[in-house]
Amino acid sequence: MTGTMAVADVVSLDAGDPLAPFRDRFHLREGLIYLDGNSLGALPRATGDRLAEVIGDEWGEGLITSWLGASWSTAPRRIGDKIARLVGAHPGEIVATDSTSVNIFKALTAALSLRRERPVILSEATNFPTDVYMMQGIEAFSGGRVKAVTVAPDAIVDALSDEVAVLLLTQVHYKSGRVRDMAAITRAAHEAGALIVWDLSHSAGAIPVDLNGANADFAIGCGYKFLNGGPGAPAYLFAAARHHGATPILSGWFGHARPFDFEEDYDPAAGIARFQCGTPPVLGLAALEVGVDLMLEADMAEVRRKSLALGDLLIARMQPLCDAYGFALASPRDHALRGSQVAYAHRQGYQIAQALRELDVIADFRAPDILRFGLTPLYLRYSDIVETVERLERVCATRAWDKPQYHQRAAVT
Amino acid sequence: MTGTMAVADVVSLDAGDPLAPFRDRFHLREGLIYLDGNSLGALPRATGDRLAEVIGDEWGEGLITSWLGASWSTAPRRIGDKIARLVGAHPGEIVATDSTSVNIFKALTAALSLRRERPVILSEATNFPTDVYMMQGIEAFSGGRVKAVTVAPDAIVDALSDEVAVLLLTQVHYKSGRVRDMAAITRAAHEAGALIVWDLSHSAGAIPVDLNGANADFAIGCGYKFLNGGPGAPAYLFAAARHHGATPILSGWFGHARPFDFEEDYDPAAGIARFQCGTPPVLGLAALEVGVDLMLEADMAEVRRKSLALGDLLIARMQPLCDAYGFALASPRDHALRGSQVAYAHRQGYQIAQALRELDVIADFRAPDILRFGLTPLYLRYSDIVETVERLERVCATRAWDKPQYHQRAAVT
Known about the structure:
Chain A is built from 11 helices and 15 strands. Chain A is α/β, with parallel strands linked by helices.
């Protein structure tokens, strides 16, 4: 149906879109179609003013007194409580700080401290690399006590032996966009006596997430994708209240029960605060909070509905290009199994992504051959999807990907 | 001499101060005397505009392309190279990222990986707490393989047994301001077969530091004190070039040799890049770079000379208050042994710091009884020191510290 949708129908979809007003809350250059919000979310218009206030008033005028006076010291927990509303967590179960990678380390080592007799950290091959790299670092340091194991994505449940201390899985796969069944897999992990750490980097703010509904143990996620927190934004960590007695290995002073008493020995704070480590990154947190606040204004059910409709429209419109130019859908066609992105495999994926940029479409390439279209319902229009496929067809029709300048791979894409 | 210095002499000191023009490069509220730049440095005037540019142009307009186009991905190394010039390191030996605490973890575990047969991480009791807390977290995780040991400050060299893998010391003590002899202690550590990690949080930007001159192994430091990088600014890590083969435990994707090839296994980058972990905190790094650039404009020998003169003036002026009101100098009187701060012990230290704030002097309190005056030569005047002591005398003469509101300790001071 959507594949043959007339232009007029797309216009009416945009006109009837209840999320349409959100687009004006973002800075988006005229003419640009940005399909990479799942790598770096767009800039909320409110962010610049908020940062100017934090810099000029809170830092410039308030100086050191702003740790209390401007609530800098509690920002990680305050923003954590806001993120909690997006992912089905309770207040006091999430803290926003550090990078996703560092939070993976904290969550995994906390889980290991609760399953000391079990050696294995399990994940899937093809998981986002930093997840597996962090596992490998823990293994290297453990002196043989911990083993980092990856298995094929479909073999995860079968691999849940009584050796497995903790399973680390990403809810929405960074390349394919496939959604894992959080409740079912968490149940399987628990039945095997293991704990689970969910990576929400591609799900929080993109699909409804219910951590406590699924009885999840730990979770971590990224602040700069669907939460629009800015480049390298602080990440976040969820620990279910029942695990707040776990031992943090990154036992820095901001996780201490009384950091400003400057005691000699580490005594972890009660609750989620112990999962902090160093001094909170105030500027990054301020930008993240603007993005999270904006996301909280949207109805997540509406976000999901529009995300799926955008994806369905893209897949339908792409069908003729698949037939003519060899694109192969690399995401689930059944939209219930799909996050907020659609990926295609194409041998010239990298070159096509480059050629699209010259036509002012930013999509993403993920090695070796994946062209990834991120769908951000707060600032994408149905007409953007139609226009994207039209521009892509121009690239294909002229074989623009053959231009020599596209055949030199850059270090960062 | 300086104790009885006439007001006119102080005016001429300020008039002849070659660093005086730097004061205008900072935002400082009229009337405020800020003696806490060793806790949070003041705001450089250039920071707001630079952040507006990063947010509006680089993020808002450039979006994902700014990782290359605006050199976000290399910012940790570029800024590291700049910090290197302040602390006697070579280009390619410092990376700016993560918090001080997280970098302590990286440096200590890297050192342990180079001394696998030795179990002890040694430090001094009374070190800044997060240093020792991070040691204790490593011990807790190691399953008995690593021991975190602290000894009295004067017993450090004697404690360098053949059990010690790595010694973690702060060059300038956060309370007393006492300066450690970096070259002598590094030599003693090496003679004992141990490695050393120097914490430069209170020395970089405050006193001349020569890491390679001292043959230091690793160092870490804070971005938001004398470097004026803003609240919770990214910290930095130094690893001497000879240690770039050490294994990072926080093995995140930004430390990988080819992060954007998304390989399955961790393969650490050559050089200092492997000491990165997650995605760089771009906004925090941008603010840090403004502070570092400003510091690089100053002649560090001149900074040191003025810092000592400010401290000597303060100590001289404080002498009558010591006699009359019971302040006890808690920093070395010999200024060669003193960093860029002067501390006094007083039973009412906390209350006095609070009372001073009502007279628009911000000094710092450190439990249990230390009143700490941070000396930042780029934006403090000699007249500020004289005025501080006059205001403090008013506090003492009226026993303003007895006000009931000062007797309730806040969580963060």
